[in-house]
Design a protein that fits this description.
CATH architecture: 3-Layer(aba) Sandwich
Distance between the termini: 44 Å
Radius of gyration: 18 Å
Helix content: 25-40%
Strand content: 25-35%
Structural class: alpha/beta
CATH superfamily: Glutaconate Coenzyme A-transferase
Length: 236
């Protein structure tokens, strides 16, 4: 059974110096804002952050890089964050790139207990360096191995007290990352009683969740998102 915890308690218990952390969401969309803010406040260092893309400069996940807490980023894109690009160019940050589909499949493999995935993406490019090639039906593929993390921090809409998660809108990588963390922290808008969620609504079964935490209230979460998009010039 997962524990219902304050976000401060969950981050203190599970996030340590040197932790590898998967963070769900996509450029602020269904990103666990409160957990990120708490990691910054706690000041855990030498982190490896795994996310589909990096954030906008000084926004959401970018706060971790502003504070100098990240040693390595694993993802598909950093170009929306000038701080991260500069840290990478000056050797302060390691970056490991994967095509986004490949990254998601590596995470899915870790969650499903598979040994890897075969993909033609990257054949004939720098991405094939150091990787095993396997031929199937006269076609070459790269073997991409599973990618897991010490902690996965996901953002859901609702959770019941057994940790079953419902998502609202685009779930992004959250459901896949929930399966691939050794520990999964679910930041949600609301916690309800068991039986209140419709079975066909559930995107992540509670068996994958270790801690359920309330994030910012929904209105505050939406306002933070609006402020972020205004700051980067997407909204006026």
């Amino acid at each position: 059974m997962p524990q219902i915890m304050k976000i401060e308690e969950a981050i203190k218990k599970y996030v340590k110096d040197g932790s590898s952390i998967m963070i769900g969401g996509f450029l602020g969309c269904n990103t666990p804002y409160k957990a990120i803010d708490q990691i910054v406040k706690q000041g855990s260092k030498e982190l490896t952050i795994i996310s589909t893309v990096n954030s906008f400069t000084h926004q959401d996940m970018g706060k971790l890089f502003d504070a100098g807490l990240v040693r390595k980023f694993i993802g598909s894109h950093i170009g929306t964050n000038a701080v991260v690009v500069n840290q990478y160019r000056t050797g302060k940050l390691q970056v490991e790139y994967y095509p986004q589909g490949t990254l998601i499949e590596k995470i899915r493999c870790a969650g499903a207990g598979l040994g890897g995935v075969l993909t033609p993406t990257g054949i004939g490019t720098l991405l094939e360096e150091g990787k095993e090639k396997i031929e199937v039906n006269s076609k070459e593929y790269l073997l991409e191995t599973p990618l897991s993390a010490d902690v996965a921090i996901i953002k859901g809409f609702k959770a019941d007290k057994k940790g079953n998660i419902v998502y609202k809108g685009t779930a992004n990588a959250n459901p896949i990352m929930a399966t691939a963390g050794k520990i999964t922290i679910a930041e949600v808008d609301e916690i309800v009683e068991v039986g209140e969620l419709e079975a066909n609504e559930i995107g992540t079964p509670g068996i994958f969740v270790n801690a359920i935490c309330l994030g910012y209230e929904r209105d505050e979460f939406i306002q933070k998102s609006r402020e972020m998009y205004k700051a980067v010039g997407i909204f006026k």
